[in-house]
Amino acid sequence: MLETSRNFLSQIDNHPISPELENQLLTCDRAIFILHDQLNLSAFPQELLTQKPLLIFVESLAYATAIPHHKQKLVYILSAQRHFAIACHQQGFPVLNLFAESHHANALAEFLERHPKISLTYMQPSEWDTRSQMALIADKFCDRIKSIPNNFFIADIQKFKSKIKKGYRLETFYRELRKQTGYLMEDGKPIGGDWNYDKQNRKSLPKNTPIPEIPEVKTDLITQEVIQLVQTYLPNTFGKLDKFIYAVTREQALELAQLFIATRLANFGAYEDAIKVGEAFLFHSILSIYLNNGLLLPQELCEMAIAAYQKKLAPLNSVEGFVRQILGWREYIRVYYEAQMPEVRESNYFSFTNDLPQLYWDANTDLLCLKDAVSHVLNYGYSHHIQRLMVLSNFSNLTSTDPQQLNKWFWVAYVDAYEWVELPNVLGMSTFADGGILASKPYVSGGNYINKMSNCCSQCKYDVKQKTGEAACPFNYLYWNFVDQHRESFIENGRISLMVNAYEKKSNDEKQAIRDSSINFTNNLK
Length: 526
Ligand code: SF4
Known about the structure:
This protein has helices at residues 5-9, 19-27, 46-49, 61-65, 71-90, 104-114, 128-140, 157-161, 170-181, 221-233, 250-263, 265-268, 288-291, 298-310, 316-340, 359-362, 368-380, 385-398, 403-413, 419-430, 447-453, 474-485, 487-490, 494-504, 508-524, and strands at 30-33, 54-60, 95-100, 119-123, 145-148, 185-186, 189-190. It has 526 residues and is mainly alpha-helical. The chain has 3 domains: 5-148, HUPs (Rossmann fold, 3-Layer(aba) Sandwich), CATH 3.40.50; 157-346, Serine Threonine Protein Phosphatase 5, Tetratricopeptide repeat (Alpha Horseshoe); 359-523, Orthogonal Bundle (DNA Cyclobutane Dipyrimidine Photolyase, subunit A, domain 3), CATH 1.10.579.
């Protein structure tokens, strides 16, 4: 039985260091620092672990409060780290849990000052700022600190980094990774004959389709204590904490992965772009939460899905779609982040300057598709990918919102968001802020497409069939206004130039009504 984390951690933390641990530190000469998103010892070189070195964890207040992270994200990160530290301790590793007002690196520097016989190894952080901080102390203690490559991804950064430039798109990268791993390959060719099966996907959800429930993981004493901590010390950060449903250990996360494979993977592909009001998860796996802090590894999830296909438990269109999300998209954006940082952080291709509308923070809006998406984010720190793209990012683009503010919001709001994953998705994929390095066009659409893929519009105050005026769906006129305003940027792009031509065919009265409705709506948007 686990005791409360406070009791248990008192054996391993620095408030004060217990006599038992103090004795261990006297004889210890090697330590490994494990970050909150590296919670899996199998990703570390096993030769480093055989002698059971000291494992150091840091709970950094400066990191937790650098941006107003969603309360559930803070609970998840801290609870998962505490569970992992305790599990390592139970496996016989000496474990030190450092509490720090400042950044992780400062806490480690102080520790190294106090323990001059100890050398430290750390795995390269996936986030830029943490890596920069660690590089500073690595310089200071150069003969005692060693870094090893980050092993939580599949693609070799050095091999692909220089290729990320205009024209090296996801599809080429994905095919190379499929060949490299042999996933869904047979005799050097893709299984089924095609590299992707999107034509069979992107279906809207038939009315009474049953959606399997995702079980809520019962919170234990450790998580309850962390919830208390966040509620007490960080009450004003974003989001609600009425209900916390996520796994916090590898065992729990693996159970959820197996359940996804058994009950939702088969329908994942067909309905991956569907939206249903009130359903936060549909057939999505929500395993990104566990992938992005190391509880689950990308290879094992791909292999579980492929095994399900081989046992005929899930069709190829779903399995390939799932593998592409992990092996293709997740790996691709991580290489992009490595190649484009830090300059990409400042990118803003359209020079948009409007503030992120208040509705992103409180869901207070009559646009039902937006209200539904933001409500899920408030409740769970999560909404599935097509709500992120087709609703939240789309609306931000159509209202000329500063992409940096949208980028920051995604980072704050989502339990699975770390800078390496949300920045390429927002500044590259959805807003075109990088000017087309990652995507060939900005993600914009009118209300018709949202209507096609969701059941939102039939219940919304706005009329998706009306094109302009107060009762019309704002996505409709804002979309055409966007095409008009940014035509020069798109005239070279085949698909978009079609839309420019379609706009040009509208009558002058229609064009004026689009402009008037857009100005009126945007002026009244808080
Ligand atoms: Fe969203 Fe427009 Fe549909 Fe309302 S009518 S749900 S605003 S797309």
